[in-house]
Amino acid sequence: MKTALILKNISHEGAGEYQKILLNSGFQCVETDLSNGENIPQVNFDLIMVMGGPASANDNSPQILNELAFLQEQMRRQTPIFGVCLGLQLAVKAAGGKVERSPVPEIGFQDPDGSLFSIEKTGKDHRLVEQWESSIPVFQLHGETVALTDSMHLLASGKHCLNQLVLVNNFTMGIQSHIEINREMLIEWHSKDRELGKIPLDFLLKDFAKVSLSMQKNASSLLVNFLEMTKLEPTRS
What we know:
The structure is a single chain. By secondary structure, the chain is an alpha/beta fold. Helix content is 30%, strand content 27%. The chain is built from 5 helices and 11 strands. It has helices spanning 17-24, 62-76, 86-94, 183-192, 201-229; strands spanning 2-8, 27-33, 47-50, 81-84, 98-108, 118-121, 135-137, 140-147, 153-158, 163-169, 172-175. A 9-stranded mixed β-sheet has the order 2-1-3-4-11-10-9-6-7, with helices on both faces. A two-stranded antiparallel sheet has the order 5-8. Strand 9 (153-158) and strand 10 (163-169) form a beta hairpin. The two termini are 23 Å apart.
């Protein structure tokens, strides 16, 4: 059986829709909550998923330093890595990029102009996003962003925060936005995240209802395409 390690950087930010996809694809998922003092298992996994959280990839905390060292080792082994939000930032930094303050903090479903957050495919259509429309709706919860090296490839960008979907190398990718979030996660995150909690929950739920099906569809195609690209899933005919 294929195995996936889900690294949680804060207890309430799990893999959501991504975990459902992994289970449906025959993976055994092992969750490790780093914020709760759990250690990264010292066994080999077929896939590493690194989730979001309020910490910064620039922190000098034992949790972040250990996580960066672990990701660098997994990159040397060419283990497939899929990062989300902080997970993207950690993957980019582990591979030699930088993490910086975002020009505009992005929180919730609506940008400062009152429009729904979306990200757009850039350049030539890549196999990771071949089922996406040119622009897709997303949920955001971050105040930092990434600066890429010349070897990294930007696959989707945002209006206020450019680097949204990044192919870090041939076996590592990350997405800044959250398309894995479901209704139950949204309610829990709202109760625990100070910045998100400033937005009325009924506003968030109304926006979620508008975009949830699209996010679920795009999360599925992104992860399945990544599994195919890294040969963890048979290629569809």
